[in-house]
């Protein structure tokens, strides 16, 4: 599966590079700042695509002596850097758009600008659909971020296409600056969403409620074999999930029986949530009863699945 993700990342690099060159070239030729802005956004996505390719390769590396939990957070770290670069570019585009609004040059070749925007919207949307599909299969945050970039670009390109068509029909030159500001707003929004998601992963935010509910459903299915489960902690790093919890078992249960129970729970969780690293701390009932009040009154699963 990592090979599939890597091929998708390479395809994104090629497509985004071609779109960036086409948009920037035609934007300069036609004098359309909105097309140049979209080209700059594509150039940002090219950086994002290259970053995604690097992140996919790095995150796929196995754990080593210095990174015992693997390299999954490389994706989140690079996504945060991308978001900061996106905001910087957004500010530059907005600055140029305001200058043009106050009395810049006119769009001299609207048909060329319209044609390249139609191409960008179509190719960008199709590529984004493919990347979303691969990201879902591989659970890759980097590819998902790349797909969101391309989808946002396609939407922006469609808006610019409509606006430039109106400009060509009416001669309203102010539309070009207005469209460029719109593209800048789209860029800013995508940067915020990307930074928010990356920050959640870097700060070890818990897994989504539906995924934690799936973990608890596994525990309920095995609840007749233990007394309770508590201290459930979850997080995600790249395309891997990490789960740890405490499991209280009867004093009479042997080590072999406890090991077999943990293996069954871990295997069931991995079947529901592929790519999950599960750690279970087993406690005998007598030791559990001597612990603090917090553990004894706040179990996540009681014996019998209650």
Automatic annotation (TrEMBL):
Coiled coil regions, renumbered to chain: none
Membrane-traversing stretches: 32-56, 77-98, 110-132, 152-172
Taxonomic superkingdom: Bacteria
GO biological process annotation, one example: intracellular zinc ion homeostasis
Recorded topology in the membrane: Multi-pass membrane protein
One Pfam family linked to the record: Cation_efflux
Cellular location(s): Cell membrane
Keywords, comma-separated and alphabetical: Cell membrane, Membrane, Transmembrane, Transmembrane helix, Transport
Molecular-function GO term, any one: zinc efflux antiporter activity
Ranges for domain Cation efflux protein transmembrane: 10-202
Matching SUPFAM superfamilies: Cation efflux protein cytoplasmic domain-like, Cation efflux protein transmembrane domain-like
Domain Cation efflux protein cytoplasmic: 207-285
GO annotations of cellular component type: plasma membrane
PANTHER family registered for this protein in UniProt: MITOCHONDRIAL METAL TRANSPORTER 1-RELATED
Family named by the database record: Belongs to the cation diffusion facilitator (CDF) transporter (TC 2.A.4) family.
Cross-referenced NCBIfam families: CDF (TIGR01297)
Name this polypeptide is given: Ferrous-iron efflux pump FieF
Originating organism: Candidatus Fervidibacter japonicus
Gene behind this protein: fieF
